[in-house]
């Protein structure tokens, strides 16, 4: 995340031990997913509690690095009559199959919106429609694959001028009165789901897909006598078709456009 003068990321609390944070950028050492045996199993009560644990600091920095990578916002002087939205950190432990905590997941969300927005609706697939799709692909002998898009809502573009206060615990010491202006959507914004859907739909249509006439979350691609089907459910995507080459090409193109996790052949989806 850059300021308008090229300044560094907001700096975390100075009370953090020196070995857990860079002195200049405020980024914890080795930020990223925490998957070792020392992953803390207790979720923080609040931001101050999280900032006292280097594992959670790493997870918070990973979230902010996603913002920087996706060019989510810019640190700017607040314009006249600016009413910035508050933000909050949401802490959650991710468990593995054995019930052990394997990752500390942190999400920065908008706390409250100060303005009204239009066009906030985003279509969501009905479970009945997904069941019909599963029955159809089974009859065709297609093998479905599954992927999810990391930080999906951060990929959606927004048209309104929206400002937020700096994240708690990561305020800029040099520019404490500045606010962040969004380029893209943030979790918690009313229009975030629609912005993400619009971005993904635009990409799929450029790829050659045709959107379903009744189900706007179903996309079909016909190429050289082969068929590829894509069903989206917010940031979860299932896909498959008659051609392995076509399926692989789609996965490759998605990975170039978005940060995704390929989960292999579909085994479990929305408890179906």
UniProtKB/TrEMBL annotation:
Q: Which InterPro entries match?
A: DNA/RNA_pol_sf, RVT_2
* Disordered: region residues: 1-51
Q: Which domain of life is it from?
A: Eukaryota
The Reverse transcriptase Ty1/copia-type domain covers 70-270
Task: Locate the compositionally biased regions of type Low complexity.
Answer: 1-17
In Swiss-Prot or TrEMBL terms, this protein is called Reverse transcriptase Ty1/copia-type domain-containing protein
């Amino acid at each position: 995340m850059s300021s308008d003068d090229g300044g560094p990321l907001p700096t975390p609390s100075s009370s953090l031990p020196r070995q857990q944070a860079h002195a200049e950028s405020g980024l914890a050492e080795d930020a990223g997913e925490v998957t070792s045996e020392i992953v803390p199993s207790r979720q923080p009560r609040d931001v101050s509690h999280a900032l006292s644990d280097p594992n959670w600091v790493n997870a918070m920095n990973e979230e902010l690095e996603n913002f920087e990578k996706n060019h989510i916002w810019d640190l700017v002087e607040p314009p006249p009559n600016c009413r910035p939205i508050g933000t909050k950190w949401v802490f959650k432990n991710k468990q593995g199959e054995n019930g052990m905590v394997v990752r500390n997941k942190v999400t920065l969300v908008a706390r409250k919106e100060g303005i009204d927005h239009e066009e906030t609706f985003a279509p969501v697939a009905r479970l009945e429609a997904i069941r019909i799709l599963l029955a159809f692909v089974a009859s065709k002998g297609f093998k479905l694959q599954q992927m999810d898009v990391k930080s999906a809502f951060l990929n959606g573009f927004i048209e309104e001028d929206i400002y937020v206060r700096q994240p708690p615990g990561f305020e800029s010491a040099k520019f404490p009165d500045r606010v962040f202006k969004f380029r893209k959507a943030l979790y918690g914004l009313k229009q975030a789901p629609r912005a993400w859907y619009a971005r993904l739909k635009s990409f799929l249509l450029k790829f050659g897909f045709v959107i379903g006439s009744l189900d706007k979350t179903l996309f079909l691609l016909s190429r050289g006598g082969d068929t590829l089907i894509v069903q989206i459910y917010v940031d979860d995507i299932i896909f498959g078709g008659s051609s392995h080459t076509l399926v692989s090409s789609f996965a490759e193109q998605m990975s170039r456009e978005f940060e995704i996790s390929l989960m292999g052949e579909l085994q479990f989806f929305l408890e179906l």
